[in-house]
# Entry
Amino acid sequence: MRDYYEILEVSRDADADAIKKAYRKLALKYHPDRNDGSKESEEKFKEATEAYEVLRDAQKRAAYDRYGHAGLKGGTGGGFAGFDFSDALEIFMRDFGGFGLDDLFGGRSRRQAHGPQRGPDIRVRMPLTLEQVATGVKQTIRVAVDDPCEACGGTGGKDGARPQRCAECGGTGEVRRVQRSILGQFVSVAPCPACGGAGHRIADPCPACRGRGTQSGESTIEVEVPAGVTAGDYLAVRGKGSVGPQGGPRGDVMVVLDVKEDERFIRDGADIIYRLPITFSQAALGAELDVPVVDGGTARVKVPAGVQAGQIVRLRGKGLPRLRSGGRGDQLVQLVVWTPTDLSPEQEKLYRELAERETPAPDRVEAQGGERGFWSKVKEAFSA
# Structure
């Protein structure tokens, strides 16, 4: 098994924030929803989540640092016991997609062992525009689900007959075997081979569903997306997925948010960056111009006289809502002096007259109005 620090691409002295940031980057990169359901990506997603779940916990990390994977046996030793993709998704949602709204968002609950199997979760993608992110949106989606079989009422048995308790395991779903050795007596527990761990068996399966108790159906779900979400966030609509075999409870519908890029803006968290072209005369004399804002409409920007190329005008509160902390970000308007490329004879004459009278440019122009900070934000936005 690979080293957990190597999987997350962090040093052994990385702090909790660095571990969380590294995991989120890998989880978004390898999530199958972003890789056409790739099994290889699913394995990498699961592997990264397992590493994160150990290294984020101080006690587990200490045991791992001292003894390696062997130090995690009994809990997560040599890998999580029974750890699968749905567990990895639950962990990712817990830390990055929960939003704190228990009735609509967050991870799934584990099914009870040996009880009716919970139906599988269904993943669907919901495209959003940046404007919808700014205002929040309520949408209705249609989802293909498994419904209870009409012929047997979901029991899986012919004419609605109920499953019978497994005689082999007595309904526990487990069989225990005792082995003796020179070191003493050992008890091993394994799923019952007769019922596959379910604890019950169907003597005469329903011919319509072949004993599963389900049939194909469709569900209409209303999803309310809060303002300020980001691409890769998850919404879990509880109990609206497919029913489980033989009358098991419904799973959840996992809605993956896919925020489309807006060619007008660059997003930096809750802040929005917009580049505004202005003419030479507007830069020299000043002007008042309208710019688009992210939630629709326009806002008035005052261009100060004598502005330099790259200077930033900040429109406070015109960015995106902050999902967890409240309030809104700002819109940063970078003023870009536009140079005309096709002058008319009259315009060329005026520019030549100006050239004879204008003050020579200085040897160096200092950055103004947060220009350095702006380009840092641009670089971060494109490298995220």
Notes: The chain has three domains: 1-96, 99-163+202-260, 266-383. The longest helix spans residues 39-55. The chain has nine helices and 15 strands.
